[in-house]
Prior knowledge:
6-stranded mixed β-sheet, 11 strands
Amino acid sequence: xxxxxxxxxxxxxxxxxxxxxxxxxxxxxxxxxxxxxxxxxxxxxxxxxxxxxxxxxxxxxxxxxxxxxxxxxxxxxxxxxxxxxxxxxxxxxxxxxxxxxxxxxxxxxxxxxxxxxxxxxxxxxxxxxxxxxxxxxxxxxxxxxxxxxxxxxxxxxxxxxxxxxxxxxxxxxxxxxxxxxxxxxxxxxxxxxxxxxxxxxxxxxxxxxxxxxxxxxxxxxxxxxxxxxxxxxxxxxxxxxxxxxxxxxxxxxxxxxxxxxxxxxxxxxxxxxxxxxxxxxxxxxxxxxxxxxxxxxxxxxxxxxxxxxxxxxxxxxxxxxxxxxxxxxxxxxxxxxxxxxxxxxxxxxxxxxxxxxxxxxxxxxxxxxxxxxxxxxxxxxxxxxxxxxxxxxxxxxxxxxxxxxxxxxxxxxxxxxxxxxxxxxxxxxxxxxxxxxxxxxxxxxxxxxxxxxxxxxxxxxxxxxxxxxxxxxxxxxx
Length: 478
């Protein structure tokens, strides 16, 4: 099989692939240029953390986005997401927000799923080797990530339009070009352009080499493949900027050096901060503290509550990082918070904006229904909740389908749902006030169930035993 084609691209070639031939509208260029330009604005919000290289290039990074220079053309920016799981998580959101901010400014963005590189495992920020994934598992995860990315992009387009002309959002998978490669041809064509001393000097490599487990060859070669990804996108999509977490700078440097050596052109990297837990651990699958963006893994309610629970000393920073709200509006929200901190206005606004982006308007509505049902004992909210929402809200609850026979009592219901022990003990649990149905305490075991009170309009009953044990009953043949 033929080796990968490594050809130089002169400045100005390849701009038509993603519709890059047009000039940004004047108003858009003015809004994102100069001292208050796109890069400066996101730096002020705290979203863009580091720029590489900062100096010494023929074209400085800000020039790409300033009117009257090379930035008169929309640029292309990419960020990679390895499918080590079948869902993105909150730790990925900042990189996605970075892509969205570029797209909103009229530039074209690429979300690259690492269907090939995920099989090697990225050693960046890790103390030990990632557990190897089978090819079929990686392919399945990659399909799920592509779908998730497209859904997020659709929510962004539909619900957060700013009235301006946006750039494109493209989802690619690097297995599309690696599956065509012969390993010997690839190493012969690419390997000679990398120096071992430089690769070994990366902090992520040094850290792992000094660890007790060491570092596998597969992990070591990860930065080579990520560098080639950057080159491939530069070659085919004229992509000159890579976005990634602050732990990706070493890999981004490898891509810069590879492209510059082959083409003489300058490319750039931008890092976004890593989101950590209150203990300082990076949020993610490896740390076991991931808040997932896939509804099957983290419900809209759980995502909403994650942000509602953020501490006062973090919420302003998170409003700047995780939302598109203008800075003056965020300042106003925080001023109101000082006057009425008990209302948790900034936290609720943060949770609203993020949940709407991730799960759409329907997901946000679901999260608010669940909040009302659980924390405000709202019967109205319970009555309009779907089976799925109830299962998401009460994950540990037992779910039963029962036939409503004439004269079914509270005691019958509790026993059929296996919610109370048999005999006098279960009977006493009811009479002593330990049982509630639809947030209403019941103390008469012989009370016959009443539709509209014990049985909601949607045919469901929420049975609670004690303080934390929930049972969901779906009544049949009503």
